[in-house]
Amino acid sequence: MARWDHLTGALLLLFAVYTMITAVRLGLWMGRIPGPGFAPLWIGAGLALCALVLLARPASGPAHPAPEERAAARREVTVALETAAATAAAIFLIPVVGMLGGLALLLLALVRLLGGSWRSAASTAVIVPVVFYLMFVRWLAVPVPRGPWGF
Amino acid sequence: MDTLRLLLNGFQVALQPVNLLAAATGVVIGQLIGVLPGIGPSAAIAILLPVTFDLDPATSMITFIGIYYGAMYGGTITSVLLRIPGESSSVMTMLDGYEMARQGRAGAALGIAAFGSFLAGTAGIAALMFLARPLTRVALAFGPAEFTALLVLAFSLTVYLTGRDKLKGAIAVLLGLWLSTVGIDLISGLPRFTFGQLKLLDGVQFIPVAVGLFGIAEILATAHQVAPYRVPDARFTLRGVLPAAADWLASRWAILRGTVIGFLVGMLPGAGATAASMISYTVEKRASRDPDRFGRGAIEGVAGPESANNAAAVGAMVPLLTLGLPGSATTAVMLGGLMLFGLRPGPLLFEQHPQFAWGIIASMHVSNFLLVLLNLLAIPLFVSVLRLRKPVLYPSIIALAVIGTFSLENHLFEAWLALGFAIFGYIMMKLDYPAAPLVLALVLGNTLEESARQALLLSHGSLLTFVTRPLSATLLGLTLLLVLSSFLRRRLAAAAPEMAGGGG
Prior knowledge:
The complex is a heterodimer of chains A (about 150) and B (about 500). By secondary structure, chain A is mainly α. Chain A is built from 4 helices and 2 strands; from the N terminus they run αββααα. In chain A, strands 1-2 form a two-stranded antiparallel sheet. In chain A, helix 1 (about 1-25) runs antiparallel to helix 2 (about 40-55) and helix 3 (about 65-115) crosses helix 4. Chain A is flat. The two termini of chain A are about 50 Å apart. Chain B is mostly helical and about 500 residues long. Chain B contains 23 helices and 2 strands. A two-stranded antiparallel ribbon of chain B has the order 1-2. In chain B, helix 5 (about 90-100) runs antiparallel to helix 6 (about 105-140) and helix 6 runs parallel beside helix 14 (about 315-325). Chain B is globular, with a radius of gyration of 23 Å. Chain B starts with a helix and ends with a helix.
C-alpha cells in the first residue's frame, strides 16, 4: 500500500501543479470578482499540500503479502478487468449492433465470465433486454440506437 | 399546532395513490437491495434516477426515501440469518443477531429489529418535524459568507468522520470539488478543464459518477466471489417474529438510546448509519450489567444498532431538507436528483414548496409503516432473493447502468463516463480512498464556489469577510479546531508507543 501511496502522491502532485497553472491562465480575478481560476487555484493548492503529505508519510503495511493472498488479489483484479473490458466492448458496439443487441452481447459475455451456464447466459441475454426495451423504449420513449435488424 | 397542520397537508400528498405506490415500490426495492450484499442504496438511487425523470419530483423523492429506509431494514435479514451484512450499517447487528439465530431465536431477533427500527424511525421523523422549522429560520439568516463557511465545515466533518485515513478523505473531497469546476464558468463564460470535449462544456453530471463509483465499481470489486449463499430453510410465522414481553423489557432502553444516538450521529455529514450503529452497540455493551453476553446472542445488541441505523437515516434528512447539506452518500445522490428536478433543498424549500417538503416528511411515516409490515409478513420472500445468483444479477445491474446513463442525454458519452468512474472507483477502493466524499463534493462544489464568489463580490474582493462576520468566523473556527484535533490526535498516537518504549 505504501508504495502505491507514494505513486499516487506523485501523480496527484503533478495533477495539482497542472490545475494551478491552468487556474492562473484562466484568471484569478476579474476586477474585484473572483475569476474562473479562483476556485481551481485553491483546489490545486489543497491537492498539492495533500500530495506532499502523502509523499512524506513513512512507508507502512506488509511489504510482502502471502502467496495465497497475492493469488486471490490477482484473481480479483483479473475478473474486474475482464468485466470492465466486456462492458467497454459492449458500449463500443452499441452504435453498430443497437442498444438491445449490445446489451444482449454484454449479458451473454458477463454471465459466462462470472461462472453462469450457457443456458442462464442465453436466457438472461434475451429476458433482460426485453424488460429494458419495455421500460426504456416503450414506457420512457428513450430513442436508443437501433441495430441493422431494426431494434 | 402549525407543524401538525403542515404535516396533515403533507399526508394529503403522501397518501395520493401514485405516491403510495411509489413508497411501496421504493421500500420493496430498498429491502431487496439491503438483502443483496454488494449494491447499496446510493447506487440503486443513482441507477434508477433516469427512470424517474418522467415522474413528479415528489413521487420520485418518495420512491428514493423508500429505497433508503428499505435498505436499512433489508440488511438486517442477511446479518441475522446468514452472517452476511447486506449493508455496512448492519454489521453490528450480525454479532448478536446471528448468535440468536443459532440459538433458534432468529424470529425474535428479526422482530425486535423491525419494531426497534419502526419506533426509532417514527421518533426520528417526529424530531425532524419539530426541528425543521427552527433550523430553517436559522438557515434563512445565512448570507453567502456563512453558507461558504458552513459548507467548508461540512466537508471537514465528512473527512473527519469518513474512513480511517483522513488525508485520503480530504483528497477525495478535493477531487470532487475539482470535478465540479469542469465546464463553462457561469460568470466569465470560459470553459474550464474540458479538454476540447463539447460534452464536458455542461460539466460532469453526477449521475454517471455516482453510478460508476457506487454501483459498477462495487460489482467489479465483488464479481470474483461467485460462491452462492447457503439460504436457510427456516420458517417465519407472524407469531414467531413478534417479540415476547421479556424481549421488549430487555430492549426498551437499547431502542431509546439507539434512537437518540442514531438521530444525532445521522445529522453529522459523513458519519451516517454505520457509525451510529457502531456507537450504539458500544454504548449498550458498556451500559449492560453483564457485558459478556454481547456477541453471544444479547437482544440489546440487535435492538440498539438497528434502532440507531434507522434513526440515522432520518437524521441525515435533517441537514438535507433544512440546509441543503447531504449527510451521507445516499442523501448526496438524492440532493443531486432534486437539483436535476429544479428543486434546491434548503430553507427556501419549506417556504416555497411546503407541499413538497411536508409531503416528503409524511411519506417517511408511510414508508416506515410499510416496512414494519413487510418485515413482519414477508421475510421468507426476501430471503429467497438470495437464491438469485450473482452471475445473473451483476450483469443485469451493469446492463441497467449502461442503458440508464445513456438515457440521461440519449448519448453514450455518459455510459463511457460511468465506466471510467467505475474503474477509477475500483482503484480508489483498492487504495483505501473513500468514494462518498468525492460525490458529496461534486454535488455541492458549484454551490460552494457560487457562495464564495457572492461573498467576495459583496466584500469587494476582501477575503477577510469570512472571518469578520461572527457566524462565519465561528463555523470556520470549528473547522480549524477539527483539523487541529485530528492532527494532534495523530501526533499523540504516534508519540504514545515511543513514550511507552522509553518508559520500559
